[in-house]
Write a structure and sequence with these properties.
By secondary structure, the protein is α/β, with parallel strands linked by helices. It folds into two domains: 6-341, TIM Barrel (Alpha-Beta Barrel); 371-513, Rossmann fold (3-Layer(aba) Sandwich), CATH 3.40.50.10630. Helices cover 43% and strands 16% of the residues. It is built from 21 helices and 19 strands. The chain has an eight-stranded parallel beta barrel, surrounded by six helices. A five-stranded mixed β-sheet has the order 16-15-14-18-19, with helices on both faces. The protein is elongated. The two termini are 44 Å apart.
Length: 514
């Protein structure tokens, strides 16, 4: 998993990532930035174009964004690209966008790029990528003020080759952060799997040491998987937009306020009000309280993600969250297709292997397991002897201390040293008995999957045996594995002598095995 804890240093202070920046609409403050600071938000984001339209005269006289918002934390300014996405054209130029953000003394600023709508035509997408690259290049000469961290936007939307082209070009320029632009339309349609492709493609082609911002994706069902894929920063106006529409945010999605009998939260808002009391409030007061509640949910979500990263349980957390929403589940399934990328990004430390509890077939693709699969094929297969005995996974761990393995070793006697004894199991496929006390092979738990995982194991097990020097393979049967599994194993290894046996048959074969 590519999730990480980082620290971004700005002229107004340090920001620990992953972090969410609430969007501040300076013309309609639902929750004041100073209140957000008390709720734990170290940084906010606002719109330079809207500030210029509403406070242009004050900005010309030297008013900074911190003064206008009455916020002494970290302030990021967007350039107005979202307005371009919505209204196609605005009276704001790339050079003016830079000038205004420098006058505002933003901590983090964004060039005026051309967003790619999720469902843009190929021609539209190519234009947005080319024009954004052009503007990014020109901005290097236009930026003059020191101390501002500049963001290089990556465009291309659902066209992976254009996202790659954009990321490669932007990464060669002088930017402090990178951002994936215009995922908003995909978010609105719950097309989360499109975000997965965009994030992974962009992440592969930008410097690993620089933060990656995902514009407009601050929602509890999206942030965990986006962090797992490598995003560090988010922003969202969802807290206010939902509140305006009487929508109540939860860790697993949103609910209409009028559908709630109880408020399933213990934030300061929900612990002091009932659902009925909220519904009976004047619109403006209710909107503010709902917005505050939504912010508390977002702040809590970031903390949960960070704790999961620290504990090494981010995979479990992402899996749990994704089963709460169809769009998130489709994103999780798409994420599994990038297991090479996730394994490469996953830490090698022992902490990264914590929380190994296997609940379903998708766990076969988790980074720590896939890492073992690669080593199994690339390294372990080279040490396998000509005769192999495969024992089904016992109920006890470590395997060597289980009743089943002890019985097999007793049957084989001294011959056990003349062959390779491995345990076949889900999800590790094959574990040499010599490694069974090596972490994590003895420190994991799993649900009873029955025959559910047979196909996944079969393919890798046959690949492992094909690549080894084994000539004779003896597979000890178990009722936990289907007859079809054993039949297919024999068929898939025509160049090997494969025998499926029970324990009495293994005893009869013991002399031959030597």
């Amino acid at each position: 998993m590519a999730g990480r804890i980082g620290q971004l240093t700005t002229k107004s202070g340090k920001l620990e990532t992953p972090a969410l920046l609430p969007v501040i609409n300076p013309s309609k403050l639902v929750v004041a930035p100073s209140e957000m600071a008390k709720m734990g938000f170290q940084a906010v984001i606002t719109n330079a174009y809207i500030l210029w339209k509403n406070y242009g005269e004050a900005i010309e006289k030297g008013a900074t964004v911190h003064e206008i918002l009455n916020f002494d934390g970290i302030v990021m300014t967007d350039s107005g690209a979202y307005q371009i996405l919505r209204f196609k054209r605005i009276d704001f130029t790339p050079d003016l966008a830079i000038k205004v953000q420098e006058k505002l003394s933003s901590d983090i600023a964004v060039i005026l790029d051309i967003p790619t709508p999720t469902h843009a035509s190929r021609e539209e997408a190519e234009y947005s990528v080319e024009e954004t690259i052009k503007r990014a290049k020109e901005s290097e000469e236009l930026r003059t003020k020191e101390g501002i961290l500049w963001v290089g936007p990556v465009q291309g939307a659902r066209y992976a080759d254009l996202v790659e082209k954009s990321a490669k070009a932007i990464s060669k320029m002088r930017f402090d952060l990178y951002a994936i632009g215009s995922p908003t339309t995909a978010m609105e349609r719950y097309e989360y799997e499109v975000l997965v492709d965009m994030i992974v493609t962009a992440k592969k082609h930008i410097p690993h040491t620089r933060p990656l911002h995902l514009f407009g994706a601050g929602h509890p069902t999206v942030m965990p998987i986006a962090v797992a894929l490598g995003c560090d920063l988010f922003d969202s106006a969802s807290y206010a937009l939902f509140a305006r529409d009487d929508r109540y945010m939860t860790p697993y999605g949103t609910r209409r306020l009028d559908s709630l009998d109880y408020l399933p939260c213990n934030c300061p808002v929900c612990s002091s009000k009932t659902a009925e009391e909220l519904r009976e409030m004047p619109k403006e007061e209710r909107e503010k309280l709902l917005a505050k509640h939504n912010l508390y949910v977002l702040a809590e979500e970031i903390k949960k993600i960070k704790q999961a990263i620290k504990e090494g349980t981010l995979w479990e957390y992402v899996r749990m969250k994704c089963y709460a929403h169809p769009g998130a589940l489709s994103a999780f399934k798409k994420m599994l297709k990038y297991k090479d990328y996730l394994e490469q990004e996953h830490p090698q430390t022992k902490a990264a292997y914590k929380g190994l509890f296997f609940m379903g077939k998708e766990d076969f693709h988790r980074p720590v397991v896939y890492r073992h699969h690669k080593k199994l094929l690339e390294e372990v297969s080279k040490s396998v002897k000509e005769k192999v005995v495969l024992v089904p996974e016992p109920d006890d761990k470590p395997y060597s201390r289980s009743r089943l393995v002890k019985k097999v070793l007793k049957l084989l006697g001294r011959r056990s040293s003349e062959l390779s004894l491995l345990v076949y199991c889900f999800p590790y496929v094959a574990v040499p008995l010599e490694l069974d006390e090596t972490y994590p092979f003895s420190q994991y738990e799993k649900a009873d999957l029955g025959h559910e995982a047979n196909d996944s194991i079969l393919e890798l097990l046959t690949s492992f045996l094909r690549s080894s020097e084994a000539k004779e393979v003896y597979v000890v049967k178990s009722s936990k594995w289907s007859e079809a599994f054993y039949e297919k194993l024999v068929v898939d290894l025509p160049s090997k002598r494969v025998a499926v046996v029970d324990l009495p048959e293994l005893a009869e074969l013991a002399n031959h095995l030597g």
